[in-house]
């Protein structure tokens, strides 16, 4: 009993230190949880601005508190630094939020893209640098740290799941035996609080305190079960390489994703095993040490696979990221000490990929696809249409299309990609909306006892009048003569409004009273409507059926 008491007291002391050290970070997460709970209870409560500011401020605070609040003594010594840090990161968060609103109102594609890239880099950079600082503060090298961090995070997930199961069980018993409650919403609110007050601090503890060693079973499981599985996977790929040379076949397009996945899973495993197996002179330890070199030839397969894809289909942001990932693998293979410094390399890759003028992922992808479009505009219309489809989704590409293509040329290319027979003769406008009714408070369930999920879709082209009497199936029940015409009109008008003003999430949710005791809640809808607004094509919707 004394051992259990000591264990609890030690962990409570660690939690107390975490709450003191990361007070501002935990406060940000708590505020996000609280406003989300308020939004669950109060329809129309707009949480977007608060969540955005708190999220950006959280990233900055995480770095500030990692740098200057390691111990109580250091926190007191550096009090002025971290107080100024709080103020600076809060101002940065406010500036980002206000700029975001201004740019959204202006609907400026390229400034919006640049702004978002800067924002994403700021958040990623502060979080990664905070983790780097924490790793440097540990007394162990990364191979010894990584196993303790990963399994501490897994334990945190396990504790969080157990607490959630316990809460759900208690609430279900109360609902069944004592009083009717909205168990789904109450469970969600409690989960939000548990995430803010228990799960998040536990994750911070896992990263900032690696003094607790892993159990002997964990070490043996990683070193003698998981690592051999990684070796077997490598052996299979080597057999595939032999098959390529024997049969002279072209490597599969899937080889990049297979090798990249193997690296993403296998690298932490062999690094953990390197820290777990202590006998430095043992043959097994030496084999673990050369595992990354055994993997190294697979990078050539990745390079070949990605070069073929880029040559055939041009560069995209995803392929740019894949090339960066290959570069990181090469650097890792050549790196032999202080692996935590690779975080700085990763930050550098993010800086290049997001912010480098004329060299970032979005701009280089645009240039590649634009060149592909120009090259095939007259010789191969299908390839040109594929490139055009990419350019429509790229900020630089939309500017190019607007200034270099007529509406007739755009219609022709669009019809080649999406048209078929129905699109050749008519212009179709896409309408798409999605809202989370629980999170965004767009659903009213007062007076209704049960909620059932609903999915419906119609792929054929049809007149709007045919949607006056549609049949849908929800669970085991069938509902006939449901009128969707007013729903279609509502979302078409909402799509038109979106051109000139911001749409609140609560406005996206649409209700259809099916009977006196039942109503249908539309939370997701996607369809195409012709320019005369009398035909619908490819209708798809999701939502909930509420019954009393």
UniProtKB/TrEMBL annotation:
Keyword Membrane: yes
Segments crossing the lipid bilayer: 20-38, 50-68, 80-99, 119-135, 147-170, 190-209, 221-242, 254-273, 293-312, 318-335, 342-366
Keywords, in A-Z order: Membrane, Transmembrane, Transmembrane helix
The protein, known as: DUF4153 domain-containing protein
Originating species: Wujia chipingensis
